[in-house]
């Protein structure tokens, strides 16, 4: 009998948010994370853009077991695939790290 399954990651990115970012937002994406303060723990990773009114526009988010290189690279790979970003020319990325 194998070990029970263990939660690793969950990515959430709605089609309407993807289309809204691509069609109506500035080419700026901000990244951040926060702790999930429950008995389960984990981190919430988020990608946020800026719309035409200079307001925050959520693009996608993920719940991960821990913040590390593997979790961030997984999240960024999925986000860039969803948005069709290959090289990133003309795109500004903002992070506190």
Biggest sheet character? 5 strands, mixed
- Main-sheet strand order equals 1-4-3-2-5
Q: Tell me, what's the shape? A: elongated
Percent helix among the residues?
25-40%
The sequence of SSEs as H and E is EHEEEHE
Task: Provide structural commentary.
This protein has 97 residues and is of the alpha+beta class. The protein has one domain. It contains two helices and five strands, in the order βαβββαβ. The protein has helices at 15-24, 69-83, and strands at residues 9-12, 25-35, 43-51, 56-64, 92-94. Strands 1-4-3-2-5 form a five-stranded mixed sheet. The protein is elongated and about 50 Å long.
Please describe the topology of this protein.
Layout: E1 9-12, H1 15-24, E2 25-35, E3 43-51, E4 56-64, H2 69-83, E5 92-94
Short overview:
It is built from two helices and five strands; from the N terminus they run βαβββαβ.
């Amino acid at each position: 009998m194998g070990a029970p399954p263990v939660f690793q990651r969950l990515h959430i990115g709605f089609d309407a948010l993807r289309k809204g970012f691509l069609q109506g937002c500035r080419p700026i994406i901000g990244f951040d994370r926060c702790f999930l303060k429950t008995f389960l723990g984990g981190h919430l990773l988020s990608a946020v853009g800026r719309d035409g009114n200079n307001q925050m526009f959520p693009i996608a988010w993920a719940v991960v077991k821990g913040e590390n290189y593997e979790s961030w690279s997984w999240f960024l790979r999925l986000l860039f695939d969803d948005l069709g970003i290959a090289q990133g020319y003309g795109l500004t990325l903002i992070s506190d790290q």
